[in-house]
Design a protein that fits this description.
Layout lengths: L1 E6 L9 H14 L3 E7 L5 H9 L2 E5 L11 H6 L1 H5 L3 E5 L4 H13 L3 E4 L6 H5 L2 H17 L3 E4 L2 H10 L5 E3 L12 H14 L7 E6 L8 H11 L6 E6 L6 H11 L6 E5 L3 H10 L2 E4 L8 H8 L4 E4 L6 H4 L3 E4 L3 H11 L4 H18 L2 H15 L10 E2 L11
Parallel strand pairs: 1-2, 1-4, 2-3, 4-5, 5-6, 6-7, 8-9, 8-11, 9-10, 11-12, 12-13
Antiparallel strand pairs: 7-14
Amino acid sequence: MRVLHVITGLWKDTGGPSEVIPAICTAMMDAGAVVTLATLAGDSAESVDDAAAYGVRVLKFTPSVRHTIWYSSELHRRIQQPASEHDIVHIHGIWQFPDWAAAAAARHAGVPYVITPHGSLQPARLRKSSLKKRVSAVLADRAMLNQASCLHATAPDEADAFRRYGYRGPIAMIPNGITPAGPIEPDRAAMLDAAFRRDFPETQGRRLLLFLSRIEPIKGVTTLARAWAECALQYPDWHLVVVGPDERSHLQEVLAILRDGGVLDRTTITGPLYGDRKTAAYLASELFVLPTISENFGLVIGEALSHKLPVITTTGAPWPGIIEHDCGWWITPSQNALVDTLRAALPMPRAELAARGDRGAAWIARDFTWEAESRLLLETYEWLLGSGAGRPDFVAFDKEVAAERSG
């Protein structure tokens, strides 16, 4: 099978998709598919280069407009040919020109296309730049969605959001995989931990509470800052580390809260970290927190669990298994709930937190693999092409409930 994946950008600051999509591409290759990845040129994540080295054909188009709709005249001219050369076009995202152009090219070529919105239809996301999205929906996106052969949701809440938006076609309910952290030799782990603390000397001798995500309102960073200001003085051995790129200068609001709360000196803002420096942040920390308002999946949560960190996150992220597997806290998205949870977690001995982290890592390694996600996506494609054994049980039409599959 020949599969063309299309996404606007897979840049270092893209977040989850920059890890998810190259991983799906390489896993599909392992399953025997011929895979092409089309995206706009830019400061690409290392995962894109890794996928290309693995054998994924990567097409990069120069953007003409580097904001809002991300128009590319080069992509406009050239996307038709790769669309016509593949059996399936899989579009990742909505609201932007590369998505519209890929859908139009697929329709013109008579090729089925699948869309993974990656959280774009969650209510909290729809409220961001809402006027632009309402206009975009009228001009392009509703038609693009309604003419899709199938939508891909990574969690039941996301599938519900598709229905609320008016989509009535089939939805494949397939959770994302997680790249396992893998074993790290004790000497190397100690070296990375020491390197992180050398880079950020204020963390020396402290127990670290880690936030790692984009610094934007939907991630709940201001809630975290206020909660930290409320309880940090009770736990002088703990230090907050905030890792991630600043979006639309939201960091200034976060810093003001920390400064007014008297805990700026108990907080380290690192900016985005990649590769070994990102791994070092996980290894140096004992507890992970993401007080998000809304996530369609929350890849970073699985990533933290894979690194043996217990997780505090909210019901805005589809991770109820955190409770079932006793590897963290799944709480309501509020400052009071976060303060109460921090007061329960921060006094815990290292061994108790580590035991929760071990349980989380075992769960991720068992139930979240790229092989499983790619296999189920390929099964969906085969059904759409009429070459499979029938509609998979994890694909549902309106008024039906799909069986969630993780392998």
